[in-house]
Write a structure and sequence with these properties.
Elements: E1 4-10, H1 13-24, E2 37-38, E3 41-42, E4 50-52, H2 55-64, E5 75-80, E6 84-89, E7 96-102, E8 113-116, E9 119-122, E10 130-135, E11 139-144, E12 150-156, H3 160-169
Antiparallel strand pairs: 1-10, 2-3, 4-5, 5-12, 6-11, 7-10, 7-12, 8-9, 8-11
């Protein structure tokens, strides 16, 4: 079973810096659409988790992620404020997404953690710009007990064809 997989696609350092500055902008308006349908995804998360849909971030991603299986208009930025958490859960209304951690301080960034076969699996925090395919039907969580807000981009995969195409293109990479 696929838990998560590091993709060959990467986001450049310049693009990551620009996205980070957008996330840290104090004038950005974040929203928490608890149990609201948004782009075919229902948010059942803790209402301390905030989201941002930014046309500028979508433009940056479009320039970085060239494969046709990335549907950039579906990209959301997630913010977990310092001291908050996303308790262990399985997503109810989506199966897979592309996940891109954004680290204002990568050495103090809480990793996305998966619980599978009585083992913990963590996404590597020390590789900025990496894109991961994640399975949201596997129990996962994010605890942010740091001094920084935690940000990541999530691009929900809306149909199985995109997932199959993605896995075929990246089949040389090991599954975790």
């Amino acid at each position: 079973m696929l838990v998560f997989k590091k993709m060959g696609q990467r986001i450049s350092d310049h693009a990551m810096n620009e996205i980070t500055h957008i996330c840290l902008d104090p004038d950005i308006k974040w929203f928490s659409p608890n149990d609201v349908i948004y782009e075919k995804y229902v948010n059942h998360s803790d209402d301390t988790i905030y989201f941002l849909k930014s046309k500028r971030i979508q433009e940056i991603l479009k320039g970085q992620m060239t494969s046709e299986h990335f549907y950039i208009p579906n990209a959301l930025v997630s913010k977990t404020p310092k001291g908050c958490m996303q308790p262990p859960h399985k997503d109810k209304s989506r199966d897979y997404s592309f996940y891109i951690p954004i680290y204002p301080n990568m050495y103090d960034y809480s990793p996305m953690t998966f619980y599978h076969n009585n083992e913990l699996h963590h996404i590597d925090n020390l590789d900025p710009g990496s894109v991961y395919l994640v399975n949201h039907k596997v129990m996962h969580s994010a605890f942010n007990f740091t001094d920084y807000d935690r940000f990541n981009i999530q691009i929900t995969i809306l149909d199985k064809w995109h997932l199959i195409k993605c896995l075929k293109e990246e089949d040389a990479l090991p599954l975790i």
